[in-house]
């Protein structure tokens, strides 16, 4: 288990003193956890600080290993969010919620405290909603092309080729 925190140093990424956390070459802190009894890992995400990544790891470790989990912040065991299922996406969502609780705090001591009146908001999307967002993001050229096509159809006129010739002789300024 100790090798998880320090295994990336040979690839140019910095290790962390936190379990399940490493730093990418470009400075982002990332976290992942191995699924018990499997060779696969669940990617928990990239985070701004090593503490955020460590809190994310703690959520997953607590879910998989229960009271035997070796946590980065054992004092926060009762305030960590719990995943709704063992689904990787549910674990990732709970891990991100724990990391967001750390975002504005100055240190680990404030994680479980009430230093802020704002609680993280979890928005659950159905698979079809996620697919729609991924297929048609707001900055998508495809979306803009579809909007342009719909708009051009909405404002199109049924003008004959000859109607344009008559309009050339008419003036808006002549009575």
Provide an overview of this structure.
It is a single chain. The protein has about 180 residues and is of the alpha+beta class. The chain contains six helices and four strands. A hairpin with a 6-residue loop joins strand 3 and strand 4. It starts with a helix and ends in a 6-residue tail after the last helix.
Supply the key terms:
175 residues, alpha+beta, 4-stranded antiparallel beta sheet, 4 strands, elongated, disordered N terminus
Give the strand order of the largest sheet, numbering strands 1, 2, ... along the chain: 1-2-3-4
- Radius of gyration, in Å, reads 27 Å
Number of strands: 4
Tally of helical runs = 6
What characterizes the major β-sheet?
A: 4 strands, antiparallel
Structural class comes to: alpha+beta
Runs in which pLDDT lies below 50 for 5 or more consecutive residues are: 1-11, 106-117
Beta percentage is: 5-15%
- Average pLDDT metric: 74
**Cα separation of the termini:** 89 Å
Gross morphology: elongated
Helix content: 25-40%
Instruction: Return the string of H and E elements.
Output: HEEEEHHHHH
Characterize this entry briefly.
With 175 residues, the protein is an alpha+beta fold.
Topology:
Layout: H1 2-6, E1 14-15, E2 21-23, E3 29-34, E4 41-47, H2 50-65, H3 88-103, H4 127-135, H5 141-154, H6 161-169
Antiparallel strand pairs: 1-2, 2-3, 3-4
Helix pairs in contact: 2-3
